[in-house]
């Protein structure tokens, strides 16, 4: 889950601030829509990916945003980043979430109680998104993800791919700049969406690139993944290789990682105002 870091307030360690309170000052869409679970897959040992058919055709979101997740009979409201892109909602009327198991009631419900045809309600929101106008100049994107912080960045990556396909088919529309994804997890088993990400880097060679980083890999890395995987954390040297003119950097992951990557980028002369981040808890 990602929540806006900009809305974070100092809080007592004795009390967890819930999602609605933590994001009270963030942008929210007005529409609350019912949605039906229409697909459930295991993305990893601890992450379930659910597909939801959205009932209200007025429901929209921007690539990178999250949803308020209302479950009948559960008092806690979940906050989960959307891992699909707006184009999938427009085409098929569905969105997808990838949720890591925790004891927080909404996450626990997704892992232990929800099934096909379960009905929930959704409202989209968040200030962390990529939604360029067709007339805007191309921007190069550096996407830096840690763990399940990949979710909103994967949505942005899929959106960029859609923009490339639309421009190729129609000959007009927003022209994306170069996109580099740096994605860190404990092991290759925990690299979510890795096959699709590699596929996008191959489909859009020279326009989209990815490198994966594993910090606690205990098994051999498979031959097909090896060209994309580095052992160890995302370093300042690696970040320096991916800084280009007209860059925007989006970061999502654990708070210490966000702090480290932001500090390294600033040390490298990257403009602070072009570093956008969300913090998952």
Automatic annotation (TrEMBL):
InterPro entries: FAD-bd_FR_type, FNR_nucleotide-bd, Oxidoreductase_NAD-binding, OxRdtase_FAD/NAD-bd, Riboflavin_synthase-like_b-brl. Gene3D superfamilies: Nucleotide-binding domain of ferredoxin-NADP reductase (FNR) module, Translation factors. Keywords: NAD, Oxidoreductase. Residues 30-131 form the FAD-binding FR-type domain. It comes from the Eukaryota. The keyword Cell inner membrane does not apply. PANTHER family: OXIDOREDUCTASE NAD-BINDING DOMAIN-CONTAINING PROTEIN 1 (PTHR46505:SF1). This is Oxidoreductase NAD-binding domain-containing protein 1. It comes from Polypterus senegalus. The lineage of its organism: Eukaryota, Metazoa, Chordata, Craniata, Vertebrata. The gene is Oxnad1.
